[in-house]
Amino acid sequence: METRELRYFVAVAEELHFGRAAERLGIAQPPLSRAIQQLERRMGAALLDRTSRGVALTEAGSVLLREGRAALDAVDAADRRTRRAAAASGRPGVVLVTKAGASGELLAKLLAAYAAEPDAVAVDVQLCGPGEQERWLRDGRADVALLHRPFDSTTGLDTEELSTEGQVVVLPAGHPFTGRSRLRVADIAELPGLPLPRWPRHDGSHSDGPGPVVRDNTQLLQLIALGRAAAILPESSRAQLRDDLVTVPLVDAPSVTTLIAWPPQSRSLAVAGLVRAATRL
Amino acid sequence: METRELRYFVAVAEELHFGRAAERLGIAQPPLSRAIQQLERRMGAALLDRTSRGVALTEAGSVLLREGRAALDAVDAADRRTRRAAAASGRPGVVLVTKAGASGELLAKLLAAYAAEPDAVAVDVQLCGPGEQERWLRDGRADVALLHRPFDSTTGLDTEELSTEGQVVVLPAGHPFTGRSRLRVADIAELPGLPLPRWPRHDGSHSDGPGPVVRDNTQLLQLIALGRAAAILPESSRAQLRDDLVTVPLVDAPSVTTLIAWPPQSRSLAVAGLVRAATRL
DNA sequence: GGCAGCGATACCGCTGGGGTATCGGCGCAG
DNA sequence: CTGCGCCGATACCCCAGCGGTATCGCTGCC
Predict the structure, then answer these.
(1) What is the CATH number of domain B167-250?
(2) Which has the closest alpha carbon to A64: A79, A80, A42, A81?
(3) What is the pLDDT of residues B241-263, one digit of tens each?
(4) N or C: which end of chain B has fewer CB within 10 A?
(5) Residue B209, CB, less than 7 Å from strand C?
């Protein structure tokens, strides 16, 4: 199976429409139809159910969609990491990715501790959207990541736990609850007029609910300051809050664990050094 | 990057010889030279150092070898799992792989417990050589495996611990040590005339040493019975020993943990059921 | 019944992958 | 030092197959 065929199939399986998939791939529709037919013939299996009004995945097709995405990520990773190894030949570097606005203090300490090691190399810090770190590791854009359990999935990655912390409720200054010394999750559910915000899912859609839609942390904090929302964040994010916001510990919220993670087949000395520095913090 | 190019490169990188690689790939040598040159041009990086007497990997080349193998495994996995999904359409099955001659009793209990579940599907049990389970999971030949820490690597797999046991020394009946109630690792080192056997490595080579070379368990047990070797095995393997062999507990050997493992992106209900049954044992 | 949307088919041109023959460089035996 | 053998690169040819345009056949809908 060639990666070209896989890319074509994944495009059709995602769009469920040959025309749109062809456009996305930058080719005409007939060659795409032919390529998928040929793939099905070679696999000896129907991957798509064609009706005259569109396309649906068969059971085998949905297996190939899931496995094919993973395979394409692995191929992309091979490509990117090879190019990086070639470009950085001589003075290698390592790419660390983390969610914007999380674990800032810990990251600073980690970078300082690692830089003090004798064989330290340059660390390129990249920020990405929530939940994207795993993808960055799997497709080779990054070599090592900081993740946060239970928000990020760690399946298929090697990890080391770094720290655990509780969560706090973030409220606008002056809110009646700001006098409390502690809150419970049940209290939040009925926070008068302060719904929790809704983040976009990976596909761009949103869950139903009353909360305002936010895209980044600045929006979130602004909405809280305006008295339109509340939020639940890890304790450590208090350091970055504007002073018109108040936090109250949330005693029964799940605690947040920060982990350092890397792709399992990584044999890089630099990644090993970072992990060592991180566990010694 | 196409899988064809990757397969070509991996072949050359493994053989370090264009002629042999071409033969292995079933093509002539000149197209192979051209394909590798084209790959290097497209990657913008030298992957091989050619001398007139052979070939060596550059730094970027060894990165591509490691990452490329992983990518090809992922592509193979997509292919195999799709074919299996298509072939088994309607009544799905699941492939479990384990080392021959290990954890037999536990496996039997697991299969019985799983078969008793309401939505159980057929389980195809495959046996493979030591240390090969990980590969079977990664390239799609199997869906779930029984592994043994610390012998098998679990990097890149999701796992659940099932049981932990000590190890015993296996001796021929009549050996002076068979009277002992316990032994230490230091005692084994100087077992008079009974060296530990040597297993072949993945590449077919052997470590140096006095022990006889063995390829499977039957050979091993026969050699022990003949008084030519001793072995260290997990306690549970006592059940399968011939009665001309005697075991003595080894009190300071690392304990052996049996785990159930599956590929991280697995979303199969059957695998989930097996894992559930296993953890409930 | 006509039309619009969608995937399949027919046909064509040309890129590029694979083959054979041969070259050029280097280590080595004599 | 010279001739030979080994190895990868180059030259050149052929055709499989990919991509393009034009069109068909089916189906749901106004």
Answers:
(1) 3.40.190.10
(2) A42
(3) 888 888 889 888 899 999 999 99
(4) C
(5) no
Under 8 Å between Cβ of A181 and A248: yes
**Domains B88-165+256-279 and B167-250 are alike in CATH topology:** yes
Check whether the bond before A264 is cis (ω within 30° of 0).
no
Of A86, A263, A264, nearest to B45 by CB-CB distance is: A86
- What digits encode the pLDDT tens for the residues B66-96? 999 999 999 999 999 999 988 877 677 889 9
CATH code of the domain occupying B3-83: 1.10.10.10
Looking at the partner chain, which of A60, A75, A86 has a beta carbon nearest the beta carbon of B89?
A60
pTM: 0.86
Whether the bond between B150 and the residue before it is cis, its omega within 30 degrees of 0, is yes
Is there a contact between B229 and B211 (Cβ–Cβ < 8 Å)? yes
Q: What is the DSSP string of B227-275?
A: TS--EEEEGGGGGG--TTEEEEEETTSPPEEEEEEE-TT---HHHHHHH
Query: Which residues from chain B sit within 8 angstroms of residue A63, using beta carbons?
Result: 81-82, 85
Q: Report how far residue B87's alpha carbon sits from residue B85's, in angstroms, rounded to the nearest whole number.
A: 6
Contact of A269 with A114, CB cutoff 8 Å: no
Distance CA B220, CA B222 (A): 5
